[in-house]
Amino acid sequence: MHFNRVLFGLSLAAVLAGCARRPTKLPIYDVVINHVTIIDVATGKLQPNQVVAIAKGKIVEVQTADKDSYAAKQYVNGNGRYLIPGLWDMHVHFRGGDSLAAANKKSLTLYLAHGITTVRDCGGDLTPSIRQWRQEMEAGRIAGPRIFTSGPKIDGPGAYWPGSLEVETPAQVGKALDSLQRLKVDYVKLYDSKISGEAYLNTIAQAQRRGLKTTGHMPYSVTLGAAVKRGLDATEHLYYVFKACSGKEDSLTALVRASLKTPKPLGLFAVLPAVYDTYSPAAASRIFKLMAKRHTAVVPTLHIGKTLAELPANDHARDTLRAYIDPKIQATYARRLASARQQPLAAREFSQKLETKFMSLVPQLQAAGVSILAGSDSGPFNSFIYPGASLQEEVILLVKAGLTPLQALQAATINGAKFMGVAERTAAIAVGRDADLVLLTANPLENIANIRQIDAVVSRGKAYPAAALANMMRAIRSR
Fold first, then answer.
1. Which residue in 443, 461, 460, 465 sits closest to 452, CA to CA?
2. How many degrees, rounded to 5, is the angle at CA 365 between CA 361 and CA 369?
3. Cα-based angle 375, 378, 379 (whole degrees, multiple of 5)
4. DSSP per position, 431-475
5. How many angstroms separate the CA atoms of 59 and 62, rounded?
6. Per-residue pLDDT tens for 124-146?
């Protein structure tokens, strides 16, 4: 019996030893990025020699490289590279009606190829198409950025943009918001072509009561302060912030209101020279503090302002990116180009002065604690504002205006996520976050233009190396 027990003990030891030598089966991740330097866009800290493992669209491991072995369906070499969250373009347009739907769809590739993994559509007439694209992207049938959309814009009777919801009375405002909620939009976009000041403020107030975010242009017949106090969540472009920086804002607003009863009402561009001449640092400080206190964000869109101001001298005939813009969308650029060529010299010079002034507002807004959101305003009718590349240009301009590279990166990543209420889900490189990432070959904190140096993009947990992105671009190139 003793001998048998010894044999049994030796046999059990041998079995256990064999088990110990047998390699443990490794989990197979969808993507592994190894030996990469992670940039924490919240703090600016660098984490060198990290491994990031991705499964089912989420980041599931972040740790020092070489601690463990990793098996992956897609392996991405991060050695000498920098990983940031995917970029957000917080002001784009999908529009032009059904005849331009296919042309708009091509821009999804352009956004992704330039590192933009999320966009915010700021109103148009292609809501059914957007919903279809989102379903196709979630199913993995097509590649492109996540899309937040406002659906149709809200404006007044006789609105400029097709598909707008036209409101005048409180009841009409309510019906418009009912319609947008049925469409399950992500926020409400207001436009200023025809809407009255009263209807504008009423829309903000009603949307606020329903828990809907509001952003938009503004009629010059109301003050930005009044809109902010009603609950406006963001102001698009800087024209409306700039008016609030005038020491004569109240009298200029009254002048605009009085002109509405005349055959020739005063518009934004007619009033801007007077706003420029009455700029007041004290007034600017007051409105910036109010915006920060009430959490009203701003989307400066510096790049489109610069591009349009330079149109009289640059027809963009040699732009390499034109080849990737559908001819039908290129045709929509003609109106603004023709208008720019007819501008008198004085108007051209004022446009340049205005853009310089707008640039000076950006660091002041940042210093006051106002959330800055990076947006390009790319889309049909916005001449030569190319999807993807124009957001990169916007971020670079934010730095030229006076932001640090880190602040500009934040404007194009975490600020957008916070604004849309998904900061806990995305825009950071941490376990549990969405795997929407950009791999760069150079550090953007040293030179913000390095956001152009893309080695790979990860969208919804799938990696697209530079070669794959180039192939996707070739597929949409106009022959």
1. 443
2. 170
3. 145
4. TTSB--EEEESS-TTT-GGGGG-EEEEEETTEEEEHHHHHHHHHH
5. 8
6. 999 999 999 999 999 999 999 99
Taking phi over 0 as left and psi of -120 to 50 as alpha, with beta for the rest, 402 belongs to left
| Closest to 177 in 3D by CA, of 196, 143, 154 | 154
Question: Which residue, chain included where needed, has tokens 């149709």?
Answer: 152
pLDDT value of residue 68: 79
> Over the chain, what is the mean pLDDT?
94
Q: What percent of the chain has pLDDT over 70?
A: 95
Cα(185)–Cα(191) distance, rounded to whole angstroms? Answer: 16
- Quick: pLDDT tens for 332-355: 999 999 999 899 999 999 999 999
The whole-angstrom distance between residue 455's C-alpha and the CA centroid of its chain comes to 21
CA-closest candidate to residue 371, choices 359, 358, 362, 383:
362
pLDDT at 27: 84
Please tell me the distance from the alpha carbon of residue 297 to that of residue 122, in angstroms, as a whole number. 15
Structure tokens at 278: 């009455």
Distance CA(438)–CA(455), nearest Å, equals 8
Helix/strand/coil percent split, the chain, to 5: 45, 20, 35
Residue 413's contacts (CB-CB under 8 Å, 6 or more residues apart) are: 41, 84, 85, 86, 87, 88, 427
Cβ–Cβ < 8 Å for 308, 339: no
d(CA 156, CA 199): 8
Whole-model pTM: value is 0.93
